[in-house]
């Protein structure tokens, strides 16, 4: 029990400090004023993240990190969503350490985790193939010469390219019904890496298309493995937790701002928040946000529930899109102006909802598993009800 | 076998295995859960005989027999103090009992107002005489209670109720009409909210009276519901004499008592409902797998799967909410708007589940809710109709959304 209390204290401390420093750094005013330089904001935020030790949050203590685990990650990512943190946190601090751990067990990428924790390596995730399917049908990346590897191919929608010391080339290719091939390599920015900036839908997150032209990779830094789909899901659990938690933060921010506006804005002689049409819309958003947060915390704990990761992603995306949409609607004409920060919520929600899988995919996985469990139960059900913790 | 168990009067089959008291005293939650499950399963099978799992098990006659059997065996007063005959179970253990009860799909209780509202209210606000008089028969389920709250002119706006109680010597003279009173047709007593001081506005001037439904001047008229059943009633009080000692918690204190009473079951109210919902969702999947639909099986149809995914996610969220509420109630956190959120989500999710079931039944929806030849003896049809009530009773979805908006979000009234 004392251990649990100590862990609780540590999580509380993380939340308090994150909330404080992120609120001071929140770029919403700057972004909605127009003309803000998203790259500069991200650079500023990344300095802050380094000062707070966040790049090493998921890196084991043995490699110089905080070894925090998913519960801490969910707390930090939610605060980041609520305060519109900009910067390559997901690729560097979540995807990077997960891939490094997988690679490390095969004697590859041995220095990556430590370099991330020290702040020396900053990763931009290069995981989306030209077709846009995050799990592709056929490979597009090629590696030649394993002793002095060179990587070629293209990746789309690479976030925060300007801050990266390395591009984390990542390719997942379907192999049969329930297996995938995974290729990963941190490619140093510079010679052989051509970056073409693209207009970003989410203006708080600069993006580029990347072309690797026989780009040199350090020997021992290329990982090529075959995994079961279940193993891939387990590998990516922190990634999904981080995305879902950030969506919950975006949702909460949109809801809070919509509520504040509804209390303030008067029409027909009273605050518009007194009208049931507004109340009921926002009450529904409240329920969704609360459910999404519970689902994310559950997914972060990672116990018993096989459905938890998909449910968390689904509920978080729905909550963020609904709350952001409500925030626009409640503001009326103001809601569709650039000057309102409502669009920033909607755009970030859309970007995150499509990262590392779609709601349609999560829904399908969830329902396939549920139907199978009812029609051909593999083992007698384990009841995890109240009080049997 | 304990002496409470042998007190069972209706010649229920003898029950092998550990008695209720022995189960209650098991040190470990998992052992307790397993023993409760085993006890309930054996008892229900023994009492229901050939009707086990059939529609007849959910009819009033059997429901009452089963509830009497449970209470007289000792499964009552689970959270009450021992000196009043209770079992003093912790909230998590009470939740375990209700979950296992729901998992078995045992018949719904009839005297829930008595056990869930009247008992706890008397323990908190009742006089010593009231406790002595009412608690022992309640524990044995010898007196069934109903709750006289809603009136024709006071539904969602309960505080506008107009039933009058006028003090006259050692009596109150009670006049007025209640409506949607569940189980008044089988109840012995009614827990009535009445106006004792018409000069006070709304929430003031309301009192709680315990009214014997056999008193002269009481008329109970059942209301037939859309399911064809008649569990709801109109109750007319025509100058009924209620002894002054049946006033609970002092004159004009009724509103506060009613609000407190509504919170008594906070920790354990939803746990069994979510377990039942989960069981019905699984039942639905089996139905959909056995139902031919648009050239294939209903369970494989993309539109059915889309709706099903939504239901799986919502039931998952409800389960997490129930754990959270139980956790809060156990640690003494004051209630927030979570109860309203869960009521809202539960009732609307349950409704959507039955909508989907009716969608895939195709032309079989024409079979009536009491038709034995219908799938599950008409339970899909019956529950489809009943789930229309769940978004209305105990606070409509509209009222729930108002409560969430005003209390959780602080929007103006």
User: How many angstroms does the end-to-end distance of chain A come to?
Assistant: 13 Å
Largest interface: A-B, 41 and 49 residues
The named CATH superfamily of the largest domain in chain B: Butyryl-CoA Dehydrogenase, subunit A, domain 3
Number of domains of chain B: 3
Radius of gyration of chain A: 21 Å
- How is the biggest beta sheet of chain B arranged? 4 strands, mixed
Helix percentage range of chain B: 40-55%
Describe the protein.
Chain A has 389 residues and is of the alpha+beta class. Chain A has a domain at 229-375: Up-down Bundle (Butyryl-CoA Dehydrogenase, subunit A, domain 3). Chain A is built from eleven helices and eleven strands. Chain A has helices at residues 2-25, 28-33, 38-52, 70-82, 89-104, 112-118, 229-264, 276-301, 308-330, 342-353, 359-375, and strands spanning 123-126, 135-136, 142-144, 150-159, 166-175, 179-188, 193-198, 207-216, 223-228, 266-267, 270-271. In chain A, the strands form three sheets. In chain A, strands 1, 2, 5, 6 and 9 form a five-stranded mixed sheet that branches. Chain A has a four-stranded antiparallel sheet with strand order 3-4-8-7, with no helix packed on it. Chain A has a two-stranded antiparallel sheet with strand order 10-11. In chain A, helix 5 (89-104) runs antiparallel to helix 6, helix 7 (229-264) runs antiparallel to helix 10 and helix 8 (276-301) packs antiparallel against helix 9 (308-330). The relative contact order of chain A is 0.11. Residues 384-389 of chain A have low confidence and may be disordered. With 413 residues, chain B is α+β, with helices and mostly antiparallel strands. Helix content of chain B is 46%, strand content 13%. Chain B has helices spanning 3-6, 20-24, 29-48, 60-73, 91-103, 112-125, 128-139, 254-263, 270-290, 302-330, 338-361, 379-390, 397-408, and strands at 145-148, 164-168, 171-178, 189-195, 206-212, 218-223, 232-243, 247-248, 292-293, 296-297. In chain B, the strands form three sheets. In chain B, strands 1-4-5-8 form a four-stranded mixed sheet. In chain B, strands 2-3-7-6 form a four-stranded antiparallel sheet, with no helix packed on it. Chain B has a two-stranded antiparallel ribbon with strand order 9-10. The interface between A and B is large, with 41 and 49 residues.
């Amino acid at each position: 029990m004392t251990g649990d209390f100590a862990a609780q204290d540590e999580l509380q401390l993380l939340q308090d400090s994150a909330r404080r420093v992120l609120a001071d750094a929140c770029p919403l005013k700057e972004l909605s004023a127009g003309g803000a330089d998203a790259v500069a904001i991200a650079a500023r935020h990344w300095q802050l993240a380094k000062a707070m030790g966040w790049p090493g949050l998921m890196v084991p203590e043995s490699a110089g990190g905080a070894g925090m685990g998913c519960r801490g990650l969910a707390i930090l990512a939610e605060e980041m969503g609520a305060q519109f943190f900009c910067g390559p946190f997901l690729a560097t601090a979540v995807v990077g350490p997960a891939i490094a751990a997988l690679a490390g067990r095969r004697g590859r990428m041995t220095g990556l985790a430590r370099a991330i924790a020290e702040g020396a390596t900053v990763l931009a995730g290069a995981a989306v193939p030209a077709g846009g399917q995050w799990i592709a049908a056929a490979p597009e990346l090629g590696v030649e010469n394993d002793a002095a590897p060179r990587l070629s191919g293209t990746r789309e929608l690479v976030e925060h390219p300007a801050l990266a010391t390395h591009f984390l080339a990542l390719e997942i290719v379907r192999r049969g019904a329930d297996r995938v091939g995974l290729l990963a390599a941190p490619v140093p920015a510079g010679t052989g890496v051509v970056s073409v900036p693209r207009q970003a839908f989410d203006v708080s997150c600069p993006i580029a298309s990347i072309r690797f032209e026989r780009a040199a990779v350090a020997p021992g830094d290329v990982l090529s493995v075959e995994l079961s789909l279940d193993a891939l899901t387990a590998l990516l659990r922190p990634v999904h937790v981080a995305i879902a938690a950030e969506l919950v933060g975006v949702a909460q921010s949109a809801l809070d701002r919509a509520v504040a506006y509804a209390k303030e804005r008067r029409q027909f002689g009273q605050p518009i928040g007194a009208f049931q049409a507004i109340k009921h819309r926002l009450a529904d958003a409240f329920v969704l946000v609360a459910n999404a947060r519970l689902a994310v915390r559950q997914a972060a704990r990672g116990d018993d529930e096989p459905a938890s990761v998909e449910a968390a992603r689904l509920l978080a995306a729905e909550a963020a899109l609904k709350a952001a949409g409500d925030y626009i609607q409640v503001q009326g004409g103001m809601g569709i102006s650039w000057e309102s920060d409502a669009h920033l919520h909607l755009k970030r929600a859309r970007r995150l909802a499509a990262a590392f899988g779609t709601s349609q995919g999560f829904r399908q996985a969830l329902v396939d598993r549920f139907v199978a469990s009812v029609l051909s139960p593999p083992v007698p059900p384990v009841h995890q009800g109240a009080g049997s913790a | 076998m304990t002496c409470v168990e042998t007190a069972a009067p209706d010649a229920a089959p003898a029950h092998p295995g550990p008695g209720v008291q022995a189960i209650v005293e098991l040190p470990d939650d998992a052992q307790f859960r397993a023993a409760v499950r085993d006890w309930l399963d054996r008892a229900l099978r023994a009492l229901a005989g050939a009707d086990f799992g059939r529609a007849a098990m959910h009819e009033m006659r059997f429901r009452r027999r089963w509830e009497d059997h449970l209470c007289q065996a000792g499964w009552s007063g689970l959270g009450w103090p021992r000196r009043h005959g209770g079992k003093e179970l912790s909230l998590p253990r009470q939740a375990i009992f209700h979950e296992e009860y729901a998992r078995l799909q045992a018949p719904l209780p009839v005297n829930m107002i008595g056990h869930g509202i009247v008992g706890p209210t008397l323990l908190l606000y009742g006089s010593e005489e009231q406790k002595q008089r009412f608690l022992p028969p309640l524990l044995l389920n010898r007196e069934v209670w109903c709750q006289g709250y809603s009136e024709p002119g006071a539904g969602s706006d309960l505080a506008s109720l107009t039933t009058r109680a006028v003090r006259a010597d050692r009596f109150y003279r009670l006049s007025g009409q209640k409506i949607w009173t569940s189980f008044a047709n089988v109840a012995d007593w009614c827990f009535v909210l009445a106006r004792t001081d018409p000069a006070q506005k709304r929430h003031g001037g309301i009192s709680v009276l315990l009214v014997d439904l056999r008193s002269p001047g009481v008329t109970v008229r059942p209301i037939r519901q859309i399911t064809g059943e008649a569990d709801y009633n109109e109750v007319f009080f025509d100058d009924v004499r209620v002894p002054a000692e049946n006033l609970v918690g002092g004159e004009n204190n009724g509103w506060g008592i009613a609000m407190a009473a509504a919170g008594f079951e906070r920790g354990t109210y939803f746990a069994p409902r979510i377990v039942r919902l989960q069981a019905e969702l699984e039942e639905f999947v089996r139905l959909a797998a056995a139902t031919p639909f648009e050239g294939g099986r209903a369970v494989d149809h993309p539109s059915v799967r889309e709706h099903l995914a939504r239901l799986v996610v919502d039931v998952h969220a409800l389960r997490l909410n129930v754990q959270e509420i139980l956790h809060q109630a156990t640690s003494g956190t004051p209630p927030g708007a979570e109860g309203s959120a869960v009521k809202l989500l539960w009732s609307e999710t349950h409704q959507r589940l039955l909508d989907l079931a009716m969608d895939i039944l195709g032309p079989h929806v024409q079979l009536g809710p009491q038709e034995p030849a219908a799938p599950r003896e008409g339970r899909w049809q019956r529950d489809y109709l009943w789930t229309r009530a769940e978004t209305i009773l105990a606070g409509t979805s509209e009222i729930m959304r108002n409560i969430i908006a005003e209390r959780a979000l602080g929007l103006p009234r």
